[in-house]
Design a protein that fits this description.
By secondary structure, this protein is of the alpha+beta class. Helix content is about 20%, strand content about 35%. α2 crosses α5. The protein is globular and about 60 Å long. Bound molecules: zinc ion.
Length: about 400
């Protein structure tokens, strides 16, 4: 396990002298109507300079995978009628960051996959493939029988950032954390939901510079991000899911209900199939989203006084006794002297005194002590092909 992790980490942090660094992202991340989508790739290489960036894209129609022959429609989409497009940008061996863009006009039920490659005179590097949906979503599917075809109402999960070059219901997602987002009943429109989704997700995985988002930015390739249809409703710690959200969220490892009305956010303590709420118009909305995800994606408990001080993570970040905290801490190489009771709750945690995301509502928080160990273990499971 350690070796495997090391072999993943080394290329990330060591890199190779002269190898370009390349990232690519599409904008907007998701919009369920006709729109202009722009894929932008940025590359840097300071020794030889960037000579070329290419963006290759495949665009086709999103389907529910129920094509010819009898097959039930799927929640994870397929693509049909795919065609390739792309752009090549050339540069005079530029040693500062350069960018290249591919605009796409997206209409009903588009499914796009892209990958960007940067070249110097000597080396090249590519970004991992990303698949996303755009345009009006699928709302019905055809099921073929020997005696004919019927059409049924149907919705699929809508890929926002799906890390695959082969979109299909058969694509293995075991090594990914499939994080779904659905609108709350208080969202004025679906467009308002997709507009609010972007400034929640983009900082967490790409653009934020605070320490709370370091883990998600470093490990972003482990996450698939999905949007779901309406039907979700949260208020305080009560969450309900009606169709079609209730059906589609079965495809997710955890679901965030995005809302605008003010209420205190809350989440289930889950390792698969959980959900929580996140208010999009808070100044620190991405932080709150990540804290709630600590509960519903990673099974972590609150470490602050008065929170939900129970945990199902591995190891638990909140335990029932001082002795249990000390033995867990010893197992994971943490000082037993850091074991402290959470107020007078009778529950215990390992506290190194630094801001930690399950306790301290500040952008300088991080996953620390037993929370950090639990996330490391979860990541190992993903790398071994079974996040959940
Ligand atoms: Zn909490």
């Amino acid at each position: 396990m350690r070796l495997l992790l090391l072999s993943v980490l080394l290329p990330l942090f060591a890199g190779c002298a002269g190898t370009p660094r390349i990232t690519a992202i599409h904008d907007p991340l998701y919009r369920a109507e006709n729109h202009s989508s722009t894929i932008t790739a940025r590359a840097t290489e300071t020794r030889d300079g960037i000579a070329e960036i290419t963006i290759e894209a495949v665009v086709g129609e999103l389907t529910a995978c129920s094509g010819s022959g009898f097959s039930l429609p799927s929640l994870i989409p397929c693509r049909t009628g795919a065609s390739a497009t792309g752009v090549v940008c050339t540069f005079a061996n530029v040693k500062t960051e350069v960018a290249c863009s591919l605009p796409l006009g997206l209409t009903d039920r588009r499914l796009v996959t892209y990958r960007a490659t940067a070249r110097t005179a000597r080396r090249s590097a590519s970004s991992p493939s990303v698949t996303y949906a755009g345009g009006a979503p699928l709302t019905q599917a055809r099921i073929a029988f020997p005696f004919g075809t019927i059409t049924v109402p149907w919705e699929t999960a809508r890929p926002v950032i799906w890390r695959t070059d082969a979109p299909s219901s058969a694509t293995d997602r075991g090594d990914k954390i499939d994080w779904g987002f659905v609108p709350d009943a208080d969202m004025p429109t679906y467009r308002a939901f997709t507009d609010d989704l972007q400034p929640m997700v983009l900082p967490l995985f790409y653009t934020d510079t605070n320490s709370f988002s370091t883990w998600t930015r470093v490990w972003k390739d482990v996450f698939n991000v999905w949007a779901g249809p309406t039907g979700g409703d949260g208020e305080g710690c009560t969450r309900t899911f009606a169709a079609p959200a209730s059906t589609v969220r079965a495809a997710f490892d955890g679901t965030a209900i995005l809302h605008r009305n003010a209420f205190r956010d809350c989440a289930s303590i889950s390792l698969g199939g959980g959900a929580g709420t996140a208010q999009t118009n808070l100044a620190d909305a991405p932080w709150v989203l990540l804290h709630e995800a600590g509960h519903f994606l990673f099974g972590l408990g609150d470490e602050y006084v008065g929170g939900g001080n129970s945990s199902i993570s591995d190891p638990k970040n909140v335990v029932g006794s001082k002795g249990s905290c000390e033995s867990t801490s010893t197992t994971f190489g943490l000082p037993t002297s850091q074991c402290v009771q959470i107020g007078s709750s009778g529950t215990w945690r390992n506290d190194d005194g630094q801001d930690t995301t399950m306790e301290d509502r500040t952008l300088s928080s991080d996953w620390r002590t037993l929370s950090s160990k639990a996330l490391g273990n979860h990541l190992s499971k993903c790398i071994n092909g079974a996040c959940y």
